[in-house]
From TrEMBL:
Belongs to the carotenoid/retinoid oxidoreductase family. CrtISO subfamily. Residues 505-566 are annotated as: Disordered. SUPFAM superfamilies: FAD/NAD(P)-binding domain. InterPro entries: FAD/NAD-bd_sf, Retinol_saturase. Residues 524-534 have a biased composition (Basic and acidic residues). Residues 1-17 form the signal peptide. PANTHER family: AMINE OXIDASE DOMAIN-CONTAINING PROTEIN, BLR7054 PROTEIN. Keywords: FAD, Flavoprotein, NAD, NADP, Signal. Pfam families: NAD_binding_8. It comes from Chromera velia CCMP2878. It comes from the Eukaryota. This is Amine oxidase domain-containing protein.
Amino acid sequence: MHTNELLLFFSAILALSDQRFLAYSRETTGSARVPSGFLNSLHLGIAGRDGSSRRLVPPSLKRENAIPLGPSLSSRLSAETGVETVAPPPVKRKIVKKMKKKQDEPLEYDAVVIGSGIGGLTTASVLAKVKNYKVLVLEQHYKAGGFTHSFRREGGKFEWDPGLHYVGEMKDGETLKNVFDFVTGGRVQWEKMADPFDRFLFPEFEFGVSSNPKQFEQDLIRMFPAEAEGIKKYFVLLNQYKSMRAIIYFPRPVASMVRLWYNRLSALLNKTTKEAMDHLFSDERLKAILCGQWGDHGEVPSKSSFRMHCVIAAHYLDGGWYPRGGAETIAKAAKAEIESKGGKVMLSARVEEILMEPSAAAGSKGKKDKSEGMRTRGVRVRKGRAGGNRFETLEVKTREVYSDAGLHNTFTKMLPERVEECEETTEAFKTIRTDLQKVGMSPSSVCLFCGLKGDPEHLLGQKGGNLWIYSQTDHESVKKDASEWASSIPQGKAPPLSTCFVSFPSKRDGRYRGGATQADTEEETKQNGEHPEGAGEQPKGDVTAASEEAEESSETSPPSPRVAPKKFMGHTAEVITFVPGDAFAKWSSVPPAERGETYEKVKKELTEKLLALVEPHCPGFSDAVVFKEISTPLAYQWYANSPTGAAYGLPRTLEVDLMRTEGRLCAGGKTPVAGLIITGADLQDHGIGGAMMGGLQAVMAQHGVTSILKILGGRA
């Protein structure tokens, strides 16, 4: 309390006990009356002859800074002093009652989706539009979208997407395009990236990938004529796999027959990527090129399954696309579809527990039958900003819960270790947790977000394609560097960097052609039915899930508009390198603003080394950067609730793939709890496309394949 408020408080109390005060009151008004507003808020007033209240407290004392004394003190002072108190206006009492009643209303939805990543939004949108469900999506962050959201800096001048860099299979008629259009109501416009959309840069050579598969194949044969036969076989295998992926939507007997038809491919799918490449090719440079996209799933060739390699390679056979307006347009469009059916996306809502009950009624002796299993009955939610002091606990009733929070979070944080009502469920949970502990999590990344002083095409000759920079052709070197990260980072030193991925998001976004302004962005946002600041709950300032400084900024910076009219948007770049998430474990439990000088020193060194790694392959890049901000694995952990800061969730190793073929790790989506379904990337594959198809598969797991067939064919 400030000094002037203390003085005012004691002066007011003395005045009440002073008979001269009462005499003054009677002389002025004809009666001794003190409004209860004073007694409750220290706004001392005298009721005038006309019934109005004259304030004795200086106007500088604001009501919000006053000290509430409560009704009990009001009554006691009235009784002891004989001063009549004036009751507060009845309108205020009505408002309080209404608010209390609203808070007490139970929440009940047809389905609850945990997490608003693209997998969760897909599940929610499909349920809303196909089943006519009222769906509640619960997002623990204060922005919806997971890795399909955007963030801005410098008053909205620079914009980045922390998770979406490019997406394949967006040609009209492609299955993934059909699903995207259905989930978003066709509101997202896709723009194709210029060729070469991927460039692999090695010390002694480079290779640009064409979006024409035939051209891609011919370019490889021209560069490696001795490997022509193997290259042709490789492209046949990719096209076979692209056709084979649909078997997950077939009945099991049909799926088994399809697998036999593709027996030759299936044999390679049960190998690591390195084993398959060694079987097909002998030239190490060719292997390095074909495995150059390993960062899109996070595992080096010796650990990743060849199936996962085929997922990514087939996905980008026809090139890459980017959504006009950035990644957040996807989340906003899906959110609009969900809300159009009476659903809701609730932000800053962390699920603390998935609630269960026995599937069957009580046994003959009034005891619960432990052999009948469990089913969901709802979720318990903590509503409030992470790290904040104000929150409330809500209970939501539902019979269907879809978790896009990942297997680790679902089974280690949201479900009890032991289920007293059902021993079988307890054992099933134990088996899943044992498997999860065995396979671990995917690697993480460090990302440098750069604001450029001009168009990268004019400054650097970059038309918007991705750069994959490697210091050597052996991709396994990244795995060897992991030990250096673990020993160097805690001591405040950044290890040598040998690999990075560079993208230029602004060059692939059509808004920037012809010099798009932030006013243009504002107008587009309004046309899409959204306020420029974005829908839903917003933090103070403009913050992002991919920046550790975001939480600190949101608490200390005044609100700043994301869109500044008549001000040109700045071009941007992102530089990413892959790291073991546990390298930063020293600060994992420390809030962003309290990590100290050692942590800041590491970030500064990483920034300098990333810029130095890019410079030889893109001369002038460092000079073109006018704004930079770096995030570490702790950003994924702190803002995306990702265990160990993993960028992709479950690792896509051969071990995980073999477990899934055996029906482990909740393969297919269903869990030991009836009504609890896994959705998103952990159900199917990494990346935006994989997570979206996982969201679709989750609906199929609960409601059957007929519920999604029209969507796959683009007829919904």
